[in-house]
Design brief:
Helices cover about 45% and strands about 10% of the residues. By secondary structure, it is mainly alpha-helical. Bound molecules: zinc ion (ZN).
């Protein structure tokens, strides 16, 4: 299988550097490091301290006043997995601000018991949920092709996750969508994104659809009908952008940690009993059995797995020190997700040696070296 030059493909710097404040490296696509060697996500956190969130909340209230329905019909869509973050958004909108959210869930590839239970608890706490499940056979094929061609088994799933709520909003004539945080700002991207209130469709395209057009998927044997939930709805309303996708994290001070406490209290959210493989946390992205493979492929390509992302975040929020973060990354970041490996192979109809071939296709050789039989990071965080 033809090897991919990941450094070139994602336009990554050859010279690997780690942020002086957190544990993220300059290998995260689109992240920016300043002269002091600090990443844009850490700088955004400092910047957030200066934001007047009281003022932002007033701005939110004005926006909601404009859209709030008077007869109880839905007035906004909240894309929601039943996880802590979207549960917080939906619950505040309904119970603090008197909105009437329709929550839209894009089904994971394979529900975990805890994920299904959390969605049901969320549903029970007063929310209508539309659950989108595209054809399973198509989803499985897409996962396999995305893994081979994009080095991320979840890429096609993410298209649907982003676009399905838009499709539903348009169908119900709802003009307001609330997504959670602005990931580009919160986790490291261009500082230009810091004050973004919402993501225009053009940006969606830049971030999610780079290099892969509809024709690409048709060439892989999918039909247009099979892909209807995975591509922007082909409608005038969509082209005219009559519904806007706002970041809730623009208006309210966003914290994964406090969202967790909020959702535990208000929507019956429960963390997992065990930590997720590849990290030390028990409450992040726990609804999908196969999500750990999305994280593991990121590790191959960019040299950082879920533990790095979790630790970087908790360092910024002040829950752990950088030193503790570094130790956690050394302990968990490169752990292979073996718990659901068999299920992943069955799902994608891959043999084990085919899986490893694809993995090696996407391994970034600028970041990994072989020691005996084992691949190790060339530049572990220090
Ligand atoms: Zn940083």
């Amino acid at each position: 299988m033809e090897k991919i030059d990941v450094t070139e493909k994602y336009n990554l710097p050859k010279d690997v550097k780690f942020c002086k404040k957190c544990v993220i490296s300059n290998q995260r696509p689109r992240i920016v490091f300043d002269k002091e060697g600090v990443c844009s996500a850490c700088r955004y956190f400092e910047y957030k301290d200066k934001i007047d969130f009281k003022e932002r909340e007033e701005e939110l209230k004005k926006l909601l006043d404009k859209h709030r329905s008077k007869n109880g019909t839905y007035d906004c869509v909240v894309p929601s997995s039943g996880g802590k973050d979207s549960a917080y958004v939906a619950h505040e909108l309904k119970y603090k601000y008197g909105m009437h959210p329709l929550t839209v869930t894009w089904s994971p590839l394979k529900y975990t018991d805890i994920g299904w239970q959390n969605l049901n608890n969320f549903n029970d706490s007063g929310f209508d949920v539309i659950l989108g499940m595209p054809q399973g056979d198509v989803k499985k094929k897409l996962t396999r092709v995305a893994m081979i061609e994009m080095g991320d088994p979840f890429q096609a799933f993410i298209y649907g996750q982003v676009l399905f709520p838009v499709t539903i909003a348009l169908k119900f004539g709802i003009k307001l969508i609330f997504r959670g945080e602005n990931a580009e700002a919160e986790y490291g991207g261009s500082p230009e994104s810091w004050n973004k209130k919402y993501l225009p469709m053009e940006e969606f395209k830049k971030v999610w659809f780079s290099n892969y057009t509809l024709d690409f998927w048709l060439d892989k044997g999918f039909t247009k009908e099979e892909l209807s939930f995975f591509y922007p709805p082909m409608s005038k309303e969509f082209e005219n952008k009559v519904c806007d996708s706002y970041f809730y994290g623009y208006f309210r001070n966003w914290s994964n940690h406090s969202n967790f406490y909020y959702a535990s209290k208000h929507t019956g959210f429960k963390p997992n009993e065990r930590r997720t493989e590849g990290t030390y946390t028990k409450y992040s992205s726990i609804d999908d059995k196969l999500d750990t493979f999305h994280q593991w492929f990121a590790l191959l390509k960019f040299g950082h797995g879920r533990c790095t992302a979790n630790a970087a975040r908790e360092i910024r929020e002040g829950y752990i020190t950088r030193e503790e973060g570094v130790a956690l990354v050394h302990k968990y970041d490169t752990e292979f997700p073996k718990l659901y490996f068999k299920e992943f192979l069955e799902y994608t109809k891959l043999k084990e040696d085919e899986f490893w071939d694809i993995a090696e296709r996407w391994r970034n050789h600028n970041l990994w070296t072989k020691k005996g039989n084992e691949w190790v990071k060339k530049y572990p965080v220090k």
